[in-house]
Amino acid sequence: MKLEFKIIGPKVHDVGYRYFLLGIAMSNRIRMVEAHNTKSSEGEEVVAFADGDEAAIKAFCNQVETERPVRSKVSNIVFDDFEGEVMKIGEYAQFCATVQLNKAIPVLLDLRDSMFEVRKNTAVTPQILEEIKGLREDIQPGYGMTLRQVQADVRAIKERLGMQ
After folding, report:
1. pLDDT tens digits for range 75-129
2. Which end of the chain is less packed: N or C, by CB atoms within 10 Å?
3. Strand ranges for the chain from DSSP E
């Protein structure tokens, strides 16, 4: 039995839906499945195809209707018969891995570049710490004098109020 279905909603992309469907297909022993992100006038869509024995496809459909990735927002699911070819599940898993790597590589490159910047900045940290230490020593005598002045002022106020 071959099936095409569309999962439609305001948030069905970038929530792990394709991997979610892959897992459901594997748990139902469906050996041919694929899914692709598309857009339509109704919003985001995941268009999927499955091919397997009737009992497995029915169980798969039941799970697709009742279970969803945590961050998804689905407004409609439409099932239709399908006559075309469907990818073998192993090929589809490789396709998914490639799609995810294409998303991850730019992020990893940005992370690497950020780490280079952090390393450059941490190279001057010992110098900055020495400067701060020097400033702290410069400030302490002034702070001590200010504290003595405050203490003298408090004594003078207490004397005027007769609180000594």
Report:
1. 999 999 999 999 999 999 999 899 989 989 999 999 988 888 777 767 666 666 6
2. C
3. 2-9, 32-40, 43-51, 76-81
- CA atoms of 98 and 92, how far apart (whole Å): 10
Contact residues for 86 (Cβ-Cβ < 8 A; gap 6+)? 2, 32, 33, 34, 49, 50, 51
Q: What type of residue sits at position 121?
A: N
Euclidean distance between CA atoms 65 and 8, whole angstroms:
12
Alpha carbons within 13 angstroms on the beta-carbon side of residue 161 total 8
What lies within 8 Å, CB to CB, of 21 at 6+ separation is: 33, 35, 46, 48, 64
Q: Enter the pTM of the model.
A: 0.66
On whether the CB atoms of residues 25 and 89 are closer than 8 A, the answer is yes
